[in-house]
């Protein structure tokens, strides 16, 4: 099972790669997700984690304030996704934009004390998200679902490759290690994933394990536990770019990512019309 986890909006992710059969999608940093489809003609079904935040009420507080700062900061704009509100000043004068961003956060922090939300500061962007939201939620859920569907324990998951290039991807890496550790834990000590909502906003899973088989949804029992072999033999976390990271390996750049995936797929890509530089036959992965 392959998933692409993006910080972009659901509509943009689906428009870009939603037509690819067999590919799972997760948008808005993993808060909403669509299981893999069997063919490109199937309509995608989207689910979302219930993170305990009334987002409509949050918007009523946040949008008027952000609009005020947008009006006074040339080049800034507001970006809305499923469960985030961003204020981008990337294209503004750097000093003025950073100053306005700091004032915006101070003003909103006071108004948002009643909500379980937090600010994420990225390059040129201030983003407001549910406090519990991170990309690790969807990673752990997918791994749990696969393990449960295939019988649980080590037999349920035999290979993990998790790759990312952003600071927000670090939670994906740590979630892989957390999943491996919990396979040896008593299921009573395992914290379940948040409840999952369907397209019509009703709860379709509260156990944290939602397997998907065609159009059917099956809630599975907690995966069984057993003594596992060394995770380094089947679980690989890979940072893109050499930097401080929780990942156990790294590749140099996005070209290495593409080459690595092609090598793993056994697809003949000798055609010169590839969209990345493939001089040299494979990617180098470093520990």
From TrEMBL:
Enzyme class: hydrolase
GO biological-process terms attached to the record: trehalose biosynthetic process
Catalytic reaction(s) noted: alpha,alpha-trehalose 6-phosphate + H2O = alpha,alpha-trehalose + phosphate
GO cellular component: cytosol
Pathway named in the protein's UniProt entry: Glycan biosynthesis; trehalose biosynthesis
InterPro entries listed in its UniProt record: Glyco_trans_20, HAD-like_sf, HAD_sf, Trehalose_PPase
Swiss-Prot/TrEMBL cofactor(s): a divalent metal cation
MF-aspect GO terms: trehalose-phosphatase activity
Entry's EC annotation: 3.1.3.12
Keywords of the record: Hydrolase
Function: Removes the phosphate from trehalose 6-phosphate to produce free trehalose.
Similarity annotation: In the N-terminal section; belongs to the glycosyltransferase 20 family. Belongs to the trehalose phosphatase family.
Protein name in the entry: Trehalose 6-phosphate phosphatase
Organism: Helicotheca tamesis
